[in-house]
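Weekly puzzle thread! Below is a chain. First person to post its structure in token form gets bragging rights.
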Amino acid sequence: MSRVNFFIVGVPKAGTTSLHDTLARHSQVYMSDPKEVNYFSAEDILNENLYYRAGVVSSLVDYEKIFQDRNETILGESSVSYFGYSSVPLKIREYNPEAKILIVLRNPVQRAFSHYLMDRKLGHCTETFEELANQYLNNKKDLKTRQYFSLSEYSESLSRYYELFEKNLFVCTYDDLLNNGKNVLDEIQKFLKIQEQDLSLASSNRFSEPRGFIGRFLYEKRRIRSIVKSILPASAQNFLRFIFLQTTRKPSIDQKIKVRLQDHYKHDLRKVEDLTGIDTNSLLR
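Winning reply:
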């Protein structure tokens, strides 16, 4: 079979789900189902005992089964765990030296906060965002602060991908994707060397929270969520989301913490600008 040749590797909480779903509509593209396969990061995730480990494919045989019998020009997946682990870029290159890599960057503070809110909804985190931010800024780092704040330090991870895939690397920003989606999608199609088709960005995940005690209890149980996903069709899953989740206004970040984090990330963003040529001032607006 043809090898997977396209990877959306990050960053987490930067519109990668919308981008994955949008590109999946292109006639020459097959994007994996599930979106996040985590094959090349499986060893790191399992060794770290990361709480997202349920979605890991750990064998090459199982990995390639996801793409078997596909004849599209582009075979792709979107495991955002690939951005943060230092071993992954070389593993991808050894698997397919001609692979194309796409990275979406987002305001690092907003990315961290969005990641935190997702984990809070899933029951992975009980601390406040401010508590964790202070811990991180005081250099007391653990698994949670790595997921939320260290992953928003982009330059080191970007450097690894530039070193191995510079000619096959496409980097854009979350804001460009949202505000200038048509042009960005056209550029991505050129990057992938596929026929330009009229694509519009799929709707992004809206902020929602569990509805009431029962909704929170059920949503926080990973095993229950996994069983529901494995046995119920998408229509039934959507109905349950309607019953147990409520779309609500997204919380805001404490202004003092926001300013401290922005100051913290400025040095890293200067390195990002040197690497990519992107005006990183826009990433802190």
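Puzzle host: Confirmed. Bonus trivia for everyone else. The beta strands are 6-10, 29-31, 74-77, 100-105, 169-173, 208-210, 245-247.
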